[in-house]
Write the structure tokens for this entry.
Amino acid sequence: MIALLLIAIALIAALSGPVTPSADAADSKGPKTLLGSIFGSSGRQDGHEEEERLDPDRPHFPEATTTVGKGRVILESGYTFTEKRSSFSSQTYPEALLRVGMFAEWFEFRVGQNFLRQEQTVAGTTTRESGAQDLYLGVKLALIEQDGYVPQIALIPQMTVPTGSKGVTAGRVLPGVNVDFSWEIVKDLFDVELLIATNSVADGNLESHVEVATGLTAAVALTRKLQAFVEWDAFYPVGSGGADTGTRHYAVGGLIYFFTKNLAVDVRAGVGLNRQANDVIAGTGFAVRY
């Protein structure tokens, strides 16, 4: 019900008309990146320049290397189903992520909330857990724009705080950092994205350990509004804490359709590539900009 309510509100807002900054607002924009701000790049735009379409973090595993822009907001939401043979299944929703541009063009505040329903069978005993997961907090810093072979880079320091339901919460703050890279290989046609992440995560017993994750995505524009992508995602537990989960590899593909410059919907599906990974992952969602 919460997910449906968020979707309804977002669709109404998006379809009521695109949000177009005034000429004065566009003229007052500063540098798009942190290094541009440090080294004195003006980054200012013509007030009559056409606004680019939103750049959502979802559904790719690597996040967007752009920020939402000062004074702008993006709401992302979705649903994901995973299954591992007959021993494990889970559903997550609404995967709500609110991205708020503040202070500067290159700075973005992020807050997210999600709910989990999962069922796991071990040695013939089935356990079920459901409830709110821990609150996600973070910021995204757009560091540099692409320059030839040098990629566009964004840095995301982040953490979850123990606000979740009993049996779901990790019970402690779990910090981490994501570094995202992107290359526009062929303008408006073909992009490559890379994620390298190091985060503290909770395992099935709610014990925490460090996990390194990588994601490599290739995205192709099939039409002006439809984008297809394929990616390889991998998760590497560090130390003995992640021995129960092990290294997991996934192949994922999907589609993103941009209804307007301010509204996109997506679908994705993937399979596990080794025994430790879940067998199937599938999901759908949307992103809307205000």
About this structure: DSSP finds three helices and 13 strands in the chain. The two ends are 22 Å apart (CA to CA). The first strand starts at residue 73 and ends at 84. Residues 1-27, 42-48 have pLDDT under 50 and may be disordered.
